[in-house]
Design a protein that fits this description.
Layout: E1 5-15, H1 22-27, E2 33-34, E3 39-42, E4 46-55, E5 61-67, E6 74-81, E7 84-91, E8 108-113, E9 118-126, E10 130-132, E11 135-139, H2 140-175, H3 178-197, H4 200-203, H5 208-233, H6 242-263, H7 271-274, H8 279-298, H9 304-325, H10 333-411, H11 417-443, E12 452-456, H12 457-474, E13 478-482, E14 488-492, H13 493-514, E15 520-527, E16 532-538, H14 563-575
Parallel strand pairs: 13-15
Antiparallel strand pairs: 1-2, 1-4, 3-10, 4-9, 5-8, 5-11, 6-7, 6-9, 12-14, 15-16
Helix pairs in contact: 2-3, 3-5, 3-10, 5-6, 5-8, 6-8, 8-9, 9-10, 10-11, 10-12, 12-13, 13-14
C-alpha cells in the first residue's frame, strides 16, 4: 500500500482540561510532542494529533485517512493549507448521524493534495472509549476494497454464528435442556457486540443510545451467560465445586449491576469510562471458568475437553484485549481481531461440546427406548396376566360346574344323562375356546415385531373393554364410546392399546379408592387431515392438585407405583410420535 504521501511529522498532546480550541492549539505549538505510542486506553482527556503531510508527486491526488478503531466517540478533524482551515470533518459514533460526516463504520476523512503541496491536519479525539491516535492512509479505491473485505468476513462469521443460534433454540425447544438456550443467548450477545464494536450498527443508522448500550452491555451479558453455562451444562449439584460456583454467582450478580448502570449512562456522568475497571471482574470470571473446566475434564464430564479448549482460547484473547483497553499493548491488527477470534473460537468449541452432549442424549434416549420397550412389555404382560386371571374365574367355574353336573348325573343315573352330557360337553368346549382366545389375543399385544397397521378404532377399543369388563362390571363402571364407528387409523396397535389400558386401570383404581357412585368413562375421538385427537374422560373427581406432575415418574394419586401414566406419556411421545396432556 505504498503511498505518495509522506508523513513529515506526527505529534500529539493531551488537553487535561478539555477546554482548548483549534485557535489555542495553533498558538501553542510547544505542547506537541513526538508520538511514541498510539494506544492510550480509556481516558476522559482530549487528545490532539498533528499531522504534517506532503504530496511528493507532480499530480493532484486524494488520500483517505482512517482509524482502525471503529466507533471512536467524538472526532473533529481540521485540514489546513498555508495555515488556513480549508475543510473540517465531524466524526465519531457518539455523534448523531445528521451531525456526522461520512456515516461509515470507520472514522475517515479525505485530503486532496495539489502537486508538491504540504498540508497540516489537526485531529481532536475525546470520549470514554479506548483512545487510538494512529491514523493510516490509503488511496480511496484501496480503502473501499479493504473495508468491503472486512465486512464480508464479519458477516460471514456472523451468519455462521446465527445458524448456530437457531440450531440451539431448536434443540432447546426439542430437548428442553436449558444450556442450549444459554448458548443461544450467549451467541446472540457475542454477535451483537462484534457488529456494534466494529461500527456496523452505527453505519446502519441505529440510534445512538441503542448502539452505545450494545457496545457497553452486550459483552457483560455474554460473560453472564458464559458463567451460567457450565452450571447447567455439567448439571453441577449443590456440593459440586461449591466455592467456585458461589464465587461465580457473586461475580455474575455484580455484572448485573454494571449492566443496569450502563443502561442509564445518559444520566450517570462518566459511568461508561469506569466500565473499564470491570475488566477485573471479567478476568476473575474467566479464571474461575478455566478452573471449573479443568476440574470437569479431570472428572470426565461430558464435553469437558471442548469446554476446556474454549475457555483457554477465550481467556488468552480476553487478557490480550484487556491489556489493549488499558493501553498496555499497541492497537495492532491482532488487537482489533483478538476478541473476535477468541469469541468465535469459543463459540465453535462450545458448539462442539453441545454436539457431543446431543449425541450422548441421542444414545441415552436409544437405550431408554430399549429399556422402555422391555419394561413396558413386562409391565403390561403382568397386567395382562391379572386381566386373564380375572376373565378366567367365571369360565373356569363354568367348566367346574359342568363337570360336577356330569358326575352327579352319572352317579344318580339320571335318565337324561346323555342330554346333560352333551349340553355340558358343549359348554366346556365353548368355554375352553374362550379361554384360549382370551390368552392369545392378550399376548398378541406384546410381540417384539411391532409394526404399524390399519385398525378400526371402535372394534379395537371394544376388544380392550371386553378384556376388563368382568372387573368393570363388579364396580358398575360404564364405558361410553362417542365417535364414528367406521373411524380407521394407521398406527402401532399394541402401543396404542397399551396406553388405553393404562388409562382404564388409572380410572379403575380411583373409582375404587374414592368410592365413586355411577362411575363413568367416556372416550371421544375427532380427526382432521393431519392428526386425530382422543379425549379420555372419567368422573373420578380428577387430580386434586399438581395436575402438571401426573406424568412424572413415581407420582401417584392412588397409592400405586406411579409408572403407569409416565409410561403412557413415554409411549405416546417416543413410539406414537404424538403428545399427551391432562
Amino acid at each position: 500500500f505504498a503511498s505518495p504521501i509522506i508523513g513529515v511529522e506526527e505529534k500529539y498532546f493531551i488537553d487535561t482540561n478539555n477546554t482548548m480550541t483549534l485557535q489555542q492549539v495553533l498558538e501553542d505549538q510547544n505542547k506537541f510532542q513526538t508520538i511514541k505510542k498510539y494506544n492510550f486506553g480509556s481516558s476522559l482527556y482530549t487528545f490532539w494529533v498533528q499531522l504534517h503531510l506532503e504530496n511528493t508527486t507532480d499530480s493532484k491526488i486524494t488520500q483517505r485517512f482512517y482509524n482502525k478503531r471503529a466507533g471512536l466517540d467524538f472526532v473533529d478533524v481540521y485540514i489546513l493549507s498555508d495555515n488556513k482551515p480549508v475543510q473540517t470533518y465531524s466524526l465519531g459514533d457518539m455523534r448523531e448521524h445528521i451531525l456526522r460526516d461520512n456515516n461509515f463504520r470507520l472514522s475517515y476523512f479525505d485530503v486532496t493534495f495539489e502537486p508538491n503541496e504540504k498540508v497540516e491536519v489537526y485531529i481532536k479525539q475525546y470520549g470514554t472509549s479506548n483512545i487510538d491516535i494512529h491514523w493510516e492512509s490509503r488511496d480511496v479505491d484501496s480503502f473501499i476494497t479493504h473495508a468491503n473485505t472486512q465486512s464480508m468476513i464479519y458477516f460471514f462469521i456472523a451468519g455462521v454464528l446465527f445458524v448456530a443460534t437457531l440450531a440451539s433454540f431448536l434443540f432447546y425447544f426439542t430437548l428442553k435442556k436449558e444450556y442450549y438456550l444459554i448458548y443461544a443467548l450467549l451467541t446472540i450477545c457475542s454477535i451483537a457486540y462484534q457488529l456494534a464494536v466494529a461500527g456496523f450498527f452505527y453505519e446502519f443508522y441505529m440510534p445512538i443510545y441503542l448502539n452505545t448500550v450494545i457496545i457497553y452491555v452486550a459483552p457483560f451479558l455474554a460473560v453472564i451467560f458464559l458463567g451460567l453455562f457450565p452450571i447447567s451444562f455439567f448439571n453441577l449439584k449443590k456440593d459440586e465445586y461449591k466455592i467456585l460456583v458461589l464465587l461465580l454467582k457473586l461475580l455474575i450478580l455484580s455484572l448485573f449491576f454494571v449492566v443496569g448502570a450502563n443502561l442509564l449512562y445518559p444520566f450517570l456522568d462518566n459511568v461508561l469510562y469506569y466500565t473499564k475497571y470491570t475488566i477485573i471482574i471479567n478476568s476473575l470470571i474467566m479464571l474461575i471458568l478455566l478452573i471449573i473446566s479443568i476440574r470437569a475434564f479431570i472428572d470426565s464430564k461430558k464435553g469437558a475437553i471442548f469446554y476446556l479448549m474454549s475457555n483457554m482460547i477465550l481467556l488468552t484473547s480476553l487478557l490480550y484485549f484487556n491489556f489493549g483497553i488499558l493501553g498496555f499493548v499497541e492497537n495492532n491488527d491482532f488487537f482489533y481481531y483478538s476478541l473476535a477470534i477468541g469469541s468465535i473460537s469459543q463459540d465453535i468449541f462450545l458448539a462442539l461440546a453441545l454436539v457431543h452432549a446431543t449425541l450422548l442424549i441421542k444414545t441415552e434416549n436409544e437405550k431408554n427406548n430399549q429399556l422402555l420397550n422391555e419394561y413396558s412389555k413386562l409391565t403390561f404382560i403382568g397386567q395382562t396376566m391379572i386381566n386373564i386371571s380375572h376373565q378366567w374365574k367365571t369360565p373356569i367355574n363354568n367348566i367346574f360346574n359342568s363337570i360336577n353336573h356330569i358326575q352327579i348325573a352319572r352317579e344318580f343315573t339320571d335318565p337324561n344323562f346323555n342330554t346333560i352330557l352333551d349340553k355340558n360337553l358343549k359348554n366346556i368346549q365353548e368355554t375352553t375356546l374362550y379361554l384360549k382366545d382370551t390368552a392369545t389375543n392378550q399376548l398378541d399385544f406384546y410381540k417384539s415385531d411391532v409394526k404399524k397397521e390399519k385398525i378400526n378404532l371402535y372394534d379395537e377399543i371394544g376388544f380392550l373393554i371386553k378384556l376388563v369388563e368382568n372387573e368393570f362390571s363388579k364396580k358398575s363402571i360404564e364405558v361410553n364410546l362417542d365417535f364414528n364407528h367406521n373411524l380407521d387409523l394407521f398406527i402401532e396397535k399394541s402401543y396404542f392399546l397399551n396406553v388405553l389400558m393404562v388409562l382404564f386401570e388409572n380410572s379403575y383404581r380411583l373409582f375404587e379408592q374414592r368410592k365413586i357412585k355411577n362411575p363413568l368413562i367416556k372416550i371421544e375421538i375427532s380427526k382432521d387431515e393431519n392428526s386425530f385427537e382422543l379425549r379420555f374422560q372419567d368422573n373420578a373427581q380428577g387430580a386434586k392438585d399438581d395436575i402438571d406432575k401426573i406424568f412424572d415418574k413415581s407420582y401417584s394419586m392412588s397409592h400405586s407405583t406411579g409408572l403407569g401414566l409416565y409410561l403412557a406419556k413415554e409411549i405416546v411421545v417416543y413410539k406414537l410420535e404424538g403428545s399427551i396432556s391432562a
